[in-house]
Structure formats: structure tokens, C-alpha cells
Design brief:
The complex is a heterodimer of chains A (528) and B (306).
Chain A (H helix, E strand, L loop, with lengths): L1 H21 L3 E5 L15 H10 L4 E3 L5 E3 L2 E6 L5 E6 L13 H12 L17 H6 L9 E5 L2 E5 L7 H5 L9 H7 L15 E7 L3 E6 L13 E5 L4 H9 L5 E3 L6 H8 L3 E14 L9 H9 L3 H8 L4 E3 L23 H14 L10 E7 L2 H18 L2 E7 L1 H9 L6 E7 L6 H4 L17 H11 L4 H18 L2 E13 L3 E2 L15 E2 L2
Parallel strand pairs in A: 1-10, 1-11, 14-15, 14-16
Antiparallel strand pairs in A: 2-3, 4-5, 5-7, 6-7, 8-9, 9-10, 11-17, 12-16, 12-17, 13-17, 18-19
Helix pairs in contact in A: 9-11, 15-16
Chain B lengths: L1 H28 L13 H10 L6 H13 L14 H36 L4 H15 L2 H15 L13 H31 L2 H8 L4 H28 L3 H6 L6 H9 L3 H29 L7
Helix pairs in contact in B: 1-12, 4-5, 4-7, 4-9, 5-7, 6-7, 7-9, 9-12, 11-12
The chains are: A alpha+beta (528), B mainly alpha (306).
Chain lengths: 528, 306
């Protein structure tokens, strides 16, 4: 009897040991592409941000619903004039090698991104910091940047002028801190596994470009007790149709992006494991405000009104996008976008109005011929949208429309270098959740992003005024007024707000849709 | 033989030089550059970048600079995947593509030659027609159709094989991409082998062997030796293409090989990566063509290299 008991005890003990060994949870995360770099100061796209946000934690961060919450800083204050932020770092903040997170790490980081030697693509995002632009131009030394360590745990950031969206800026991956000692020691190679020192929920274990990036839980992270997944495997699932099959076979727990034309099929097959939710993305047509006949606001309005956006959203984007009548996508806290006045009209009424406008302008049937060339970058959805819009303009306005597609580099180089065009496809995804990030597309002074060269002094004035307004409600009101001016002029033609596309397995807990489209692995747990 | 090999390799240097030069200027004539992004860069930032990558210098200086580095085996930094140099990227990714490409090559040769000989020996029979029909289908159905079908059947429906990734380079991960990559080549080789085998079987020396009453398999062996020559000349460039990776297969099966670099480099205007892939491919073509010529000497007694 006792022998049997001993045997049973041994079996139980073995089971406990093996259960302990299996307790390591792995999150297989399809990430839609490979990062071009893990140097936060050189990144520009969301698939890079997804990995960096797991590795590093900025002064502020996002919760699972995309709201700003304290990160490496536990609290902060803003001076009454709105120009000096003082951040208190957590006393228990540590890097993955055990070093304490110091204010000097943040100072080092901000100086590094502004240093012209770094040649950081997104440096201009942080120009609101005092002297940032001058440092980036090489006119001042990095030491003169308005970021300073008051003591080991206090970071003080001085701004050029009040910047109401500054905390939003700090959520961007280019504002993440760097471990000064390891960056200085390893130079460009500080991003390699073994060299990379992180202060976030995870640390970098492996990086095999094109295959996977493996992150393991950082035991030194201040909130490590609440990080539920031990290992995160990022896969660069660039072929999203193949990724869908891998997801269905259970090889991936979540996957970012899937082919939009598969949405109906996937919804039927996978039910609510398919997540489409609005985020800060706008598809629009830039229209050349400096060229006849598009310099006539009536022509621009007529073209905008003749487009049946419901058709584009439902039939071409299979419901993975919603009609847009504003420049700023919905969902930004405290901001209600202005809408084009025809948003409330029926499509038939819009078309009647469009015909009237184009006749007044002297074009279309009976007037001068209306010739339009639509440029777009090679992509299946863009092609279908352009074809549909060409047809609508032909039907409603009697326009002669031609299409011209080029690859994405040629397309944007042409627009940014002020090449000649009539109408061109463009898209914008918010870098941070503030209307200013979208309104800036229509500013006269925006040399490269205002493709159609829209210019209205009243608009510029209002946007400038909003930048200087500290009261959030008043500021939102002024920005909406500015947006209404741009839409009345139809300086560009909003088409659609894209939804973010994710596949999330039923096994996954803690995943929440949000307009910022940020999904930190630290909030995820997996039921195996 | 050795001096021939050396002569050929030396002769390849001017060829490579011309290829490098043409590619260098051609890729820069494409509109747009590595830093034209969907989200435009501030002018100051763009200037910093151009200076950092020496794109602000005259083109001929950039060219001389590149040549100088290339001679020393330095492919330069990637403009887009900035954590790595192009040399590192190729060194890391080539083993995957070469492993996959060689497996596919071996499978294609064995399967293709066997099917071709089988069909040739039964010329105009039902067996011949069915083998050739399958081969024609193999040539015409593109691998971006074959690959997903394999994934659906063996991965999703039967659950036998993993759908993607390299794993530890184990056989299970290798089966589907190898088959998908090999099938079109196997079909071409089968067709080539069949037609040249039929011709060889009719040749005088084979007829003589037959007349002397040699057993069938000996006759076939002698005929095959001659029949393989066209197949071998096809294999040179085909093998170079196979081992430098297939963008379609590598993307669908999520294999971290060099195939993707050909497309990504060009689309991203990653000048150094484009150059790196071009030089690599050119190098493989030179080597495989040399191997083809050496194989000729081994197979055809009329060919001599002194």
C-alpha cells in the first residue's frame, strides 16, 4: 500500500514539475511586416512601433483601450503658462540589465533624436520642444535642447510655446527612452539581441529578419507582476492571405491585417475573431488647387459631391472602411470633426447639386470639357476606388477621366516634389491622437504634405490660434472651425476612414479595439 | 581543366563590372528615392538623411565610392533596413534560400528526368500523354496558385504540415515550399528530357547498340547521356534563379530568404540592397554556367577544355 502511495506521490510530483515547465506562455503575434530597424529614433511605421512599445516604456504610455496613462513617469505637472512639463520618474523603474531608469536616459534620448548626425526621420515631430528645430538644423548644440534632468528622477521638458497635444506626442515610439550606456558602448549595434537594454515589459531575445522576433518577459520591469505572457513571438506576416491560413491553423494567436476582399468570408468563418474597428486613418484625394479648372472651389465641391462614398465603403472596402466627410477621423477625445455641408444630403441630391455647380463653373455637358487624371499608387483597393470614382464623375458630371498608376515611391516623390497632377490618391494615419496632426495637411506652410497646395489665410490663422489656446474645449472649437473652412473650400476631398483589421483568436484575453490601433502584448493573456 | 576554370572566372570580372555599372545607374534613374515616404519628411530632416548617406554628393563620386567598397567585399549599409549592412543581410538570408533552392533543384532533376525518360520510352502511348499533360499543367499553373492549395490541403484540411515559417529547418517545414518551388522546374525538365531523349533514341550510335543486341537499360543509359545536354544547359540559369530565392514562395511560406530582397530593394529604392542582390545573382549565374560547361565536358567526349 505504502509503495503505491509513494508511487502516486512520485507521479504527482513529476506532473507538478512538468506543469511548471509548461507554464511558460507564448503569444504568437502576426505583425504584418518586418521592422526596418529597432532603433526607435529611426522608425516610422506601425509594425516597428508595435515591437518597440513592448520593449520600451516612455514617460507616458497607453492602456489597453488606447488611453494615456503614466509610464516610466508616475506623475507630472505643467507650468501655468503651459510651457514647462515636469515628470517624476518611478523610483523602482529599472532597465532589463538591472540599472535604474534615470532622468539622464531621457535627456540623452531626446538629444540623440534631434542631433542632425542621427538623421532621424521623425525628428520634426518633436519640434515643439524648445530649441529642437535649431538643434536639428545644426544651428545649436544638442546640449541646448529644452530637456533637462533636474535630478535622477525628475525630467523637465521646456516647450517653444504651449503645445496642448504634447502628451500625445510623448506616446510616439520616437519619444521612447534609450539606455545611454549601452547605446554609447555599442553604437549602431545597440539594437542587437544581447546588446539591447530595455525598460519595458519585455526584452529582446532573438531577431531573425523575415522570420521572427522573440521577446521575453523583463523581470526588472516595475509592473512585471501584471505581465501575463512570458514570451512574445512577432512574425512579419507580410503575405496577409497566407497569414490568414496560418491563423486558421492555430499557428498565430493574433494577426494584424488581412485582405479586405476576404472580410465577408472571414466573418462567416471566424465570427467575432475578426476585429474591424475605426482608427485614425483617412483616405482622401488631393486635388490641385493651383490648376485650372480645379482652382475653382465650385469644381472641387462638385467633384466631392459626385462621389458615392457608401458605395466605396460597402462594395469596394467590403465594410472595412466608413464614408468620410471630414478631414479629421472620428474618435479623438474631446474633438467633434466638422463635416462637409453635403454630408446630410442624400446621394441623389448631392449629384443634382454637383451638376448645377459644374454648369455654373462652365464645365461639363454644354460647357468646356472637364478632363481629369487620377493618379494613384499601385494597389488593388486604390485601383478599384479610382475606377469607381472615374465612373461616378463620368456619369454625373460628364467628365473625361483617365487613370495613372505608379509604384508608391514614384507616386509620393511626384507629389512631394510638386509634380503636375489633377487629382491624386493620398492617405494619412495619425501619428498621435490630436486633430492638429490632420489639420496640418492643409496648412499653407506645409511644404511637402499639402500636396494640392490648398491655401486659405483664414484657415492658417485659425490653426495657428488653436495651437496657442490652452483651454481644451475652446481649442477644439477653433480647430473644428478651421476644419469647416477647409471643407467649405474642399481643399482636399475626404473619401473614407479605414478600419484597423485584426484577427484575434478566442484564446486571447485582454485585447481591446481602440482608435490609436495600439495593442501592447503586456495586457494580453492566452488560454491554452 | 583548372586553367580553363580560372580563365573563365577571370573572364567574368568585366561582365560583373558592366552589370554593376548598369545596375547602379539604372536604379538611380527610377523616380523617387529611399526617403520618399507616405508620410513626408521635413526638408531639414531629409537633408540630414541625404548627408548621412552621402546622397548629396555627385553621382559619379557615389559610384566610385561604391565600386571601391565593393572590391573590398563591402556592399554598404542598407538604406531601409538600417540595423544591418547589405552584406550581413545576404549572408544571413542566403543559407535559407540556398537550402530550399538546392532541395527543389534535386527534386526537380530526379522527378523531371525520370518522368521525361519514362514518357520518351513509351512515346505516343497513354502513359506518355498523361505524363506530358501533367507536365504541361505544371508549367502553366503558377506557383502562387500551387502554394496556397498545398497549404489548404496539407496544412489546414489534413493538418499534416506546418503552413509557414522555417522552424528549426526541419523536414516538415521544408516539404511544402520545396515541392511548390520544384514543380514548375520539374515540369520543364520532364518536357526537355522527353524530347531530347526521343531524339537520342533515334540516333545512329543508339541504333547500332540496339542492333548489337545490348540490353534495354544499357541502351537507355547511353541515350540518356546525350539527351541530358539540353537539360544541363537549361539548368545553369534555372539553378541560379532557384538558389537566390523565389519571392512568391518565400512570402507565402514565410521563409526568411533573399527572394524578398529583390522586390523590396527595388520598391523601396534601397539602392545598396538592389546592387547586392544583383551582384549575388550575377555571381551565381557565372558559377552555374561554368558548372554547366564543365558538366558538358564530362558528358560529351567531343568537348575538351585545355
Amino acid at each position: 500500500m505504502s509503495r503505491i502511495r509513494t508511487f502516486l506521490c512520485a507521479v504527482a510530483a513529476l506532473c507538478a514539475i512538468s506543469a511548471g515547465a509548461q507554464a511558460e506562455t507564448v503569444y504568437h503575434r502576426g505583425n504584418a511586416g518586418d521592422p526596418k530597424t529597432l532603433d526607435a529614433h529611426q522608425t516610422s511605421i506601425d509594425v516597428e512601433a508595435n515591437i518597440l512599445w513592448d520593449l520600451l516604456e516612455g514617460l507616458v504610455t497607453y492602456d489597453e483601450a488606447g488611453r494615456i496613462v503614466p509610464g516610466a513617469a508616475e506623475s507630472w505637472t505643467l507650468s501655468p503658462d503651459g510651457t514647462v512639463y515636469t515628470f517624476k520618474l518611478r523610483a523602482n523603474g529599472k532597465w532589463s540589465n538591472g540599472d535604474p531608469v534615470r532622468a539622464s536616459d531621457f535627456v540623452f534620448s531626446f538629444r540623440r533624436i534631434m542631433d542632425p548626425q542621427t538623421a532621424a526621420k521623425y525628428a520634426s515631430l518633436h519640434y515643439p520642444i524648445k530649441n529642437a528645430e535649431k538643434v536639428n538644423r545644426g544651428e545649436m548644440k544638442p546640449e541646448e535642447l529644452g530637456v533637462r534632468a533636474v535630478d535622477d528622477l525628475t525630467v523637465e521638458i521646456t516647450l517653444e510655446r504651449p503645445t496642448p497635444y504634447f502628451l500625445e506626442l510623448l506616446t510616439h515610439q520616437t519619444a521612447l527612452p534609450m539606455h545611454q550606456a549601452s547605446v554609447e558602448r555599442f553604437g549602431k549595434d545597440f539594437v542587437r539581441p544581447g546588446n539591447f537594454v530595455s525598460n519595458g515589459a519585455y526584452s529582446l531575445a532573438e531577431n531573425v529578419p523575415g522570420d521572427h522576433i522573440k521577446l521575453v518577459k523583463n523581470p526588472h520591469y516595475w509592473d512585471a507582476a501584471n505581465v501575463q505572457t512570458d514570451v512574445v513571438m512577432f512574425y512579419p506576416t507580410e503575405d496577409n492571405a497566407a497569414a490568414v491560413r496560418r491563423f486558421m491553423a492555430g499557428e498565430l494567436d493574433t494577426n494584424y491585417q488581412f485582405p479586405i476582399d476576404q472580410l465577408p468570408f472571414l466573418t462567416e468563418k471566424l465570427g467575432d475573431q475578426v476585429k474591424t474597428s475605426p482608427y485614425l486613418a483617412i483616405e482622401y484625394y488631393a486635388i490641385n488647387n493651383r490648376k485650372e479648372p480645379f482652382s475653382d472651389p465650385r469644381v472641387r465641391r462638385a467633384l466631392a459631391m459626385a462621389i458615392d462614398r457608401d458605395f466605396l465603403a460597402e462594395k469596394i472596402w467590403s465594410g472595412a472602411a466608413t464614408p468620410a466627410y471630414s478631414l479629421v477621423p472620428p474618435g479623438i477625445n474631446g474633438y467633434t470633426p466638422a463635416e462637409a455641408d453635403f454630408a446630410a444630403m442624400s446621394q441623389l441630391d448631392r449629384e443634382d447639386e454637383a451638376r448645377k455647380l459644374i454648369e455654373e463653373a462652365g464645365y461639363g455637358p454644354g460647357g468646356k470639357p472637364l478632363k481629369i487624371e487620377i493618379r494613384y499608387n499601385t494597389n488593388d483597393a486604390h485601383k478599384k476606388v479610382a475606377t469607381a470614382i472615374a465612373d461616378m464623375w463620368k456619369e454625373v458630371l460628364g467628365a473625361e477621366v483617365t487613370l495613372l498608376n505608379t509604384d508608391i515611391k514614384t507616386h509620393y516623390a511626384h507629389l512631394q516634389n510638386r509634380g503636375d497632377f489633377d487629382v491624386a490618391r493620398a492617405g494619412w494615419v495619425g501619428d498621435y491622437a490630436d486633430a492638429q496632426n490632420f489639420l496640418y495637411l492643409g496648412l499653407t506652410g506645409n511644404a511637402v504634405g499639402n500636396y494640392g497646395q490648398y491655401s486659405n489665410p483664414k484657415y492658417d490663422e485659425l490653426v495657428k490660434m488653436s495651437d496657442a489656446t490652452l483651454d481644451p474645449a475652446e481649442r477644439a472649437r477653433i480647430m473644428a472651425e478651421a476644419e469647416a473652412v477647409l471643407l467649405a473650400d474642399m481643399g482636399l476631398i475626404p473619401l473614407l476612414n479605414r478600419s484597423s483589421l485584426h484577427l484575434v483568436s478566442d484564446r486571447v484575453k485582454g485585447w481591446a479595439p481602440n482608435v490609436r490601433n495600439v495593442h501592447r502584448s503586456r495586457y494580453i493573456s492566452i488560454d491554452r | 581543366m583548372l586553367s580553363y576554370t580560372l580563365r573563365r572566372l577571370l573572364g567574368a570580372v568585366p561582365t560583373l563590372f558592366v552589370i554593376v555599372t548598369v545596375a547602379f545607374f539604372l536604379v538611380r534613374f527610377a523616380p523617387g528615392g529611399p526617403f520618399d515616404l507616405e508620410q513626408p519628411l521635413a526638408p531639414q530632416v531629409l537633408e540630414n538623411l541625404r548627408r548621412a548617406y552621402r546622397l548629396d554628393q555627385p553621382l559619379y563620386l557615389q559610384y566610385l565610392d561604391y565600386l571601391g567598397k565593393l572590391v573590398r567585399g563591402d556592399f554598404g549599409p542598407s538604406y531601409v533596413a538600417i540595423d544591418f549592412t547589405v552584406g550581413e543581410m545576404l549572408r544571413r538570408a542566403l543559407p535559407y534560400s540556398v537550402t530550399l533552392g538546392l532541395s527543389a533543384l534535386v527534386l526537380a532533376i530526379i522527378g523531371g528526368v525520370a518522368a521525361g525518360v519514362f514518357a520518351a520510352l513509351r512515346q505516343n502511348s497513354a502513359a506518355d500523354y498523361s505524363v506530358m499533360t501533367v507536365a504541361t499543367v505544371g508549367v502553366t499553373v503558377p506557383n502562387f496558385v500551387v502554394a496556397p492549395v498545398l497549404q489548404l490541403v496539407f496544412g489546414l484540411m489534413l493538418g499534416l504540415l506546418p503552413l509557414g515559417g522555417w522552424g528549426d529547418g526541419d523536414l516538415a517545414h521544408l516539404v511544402m515550399p520545396t515541392v511548390a518551388l520544384a514543380l514548375p522546374q520539374m515540369a520543364v525538365i520532364a518536357r526537355l528530357t522527353r524530347s531530347s531523349m526521343i531524339e537520342a533514341l533515334r540516333a545512329d550510335h543508339i541504333r547500332t547498340l540496339r542492333a548489337c543486341g545490348l540490353p534495354g537499360h544499357v541502351v537507355v543509359r547511353h541515350a540518356l547521356k546525350g539527351a541530358l545536354l539540353p537539360v544541363i544547359s537549361y539548368l545553369g540559369p534555372a539553378a541560379a534563379a532557384l538558389v537566390t530565392g523565389s519571392v512568391v514562395i518565400e512570402k507565402i511560406f514565410a521563409i526568411p530568404g533573399v527572394g524578398a530582397y529583390f522586390v523590396e530593394g527595388a520598391l523601396n529604392r534601397d539602392y545598396t540592397l538592389v546592387m547586392g542582390t544583383v551582384v549575388t545573382l550575377a555571381g551565381f549565374v557565372v558559377v552555374f554556367n561554368l558548372l554547366v560547361d564543365l558538366a558538358y565536358a564530362a558528358l560529351d567526349p567531343r568537348v575538351r577544355y585545355d
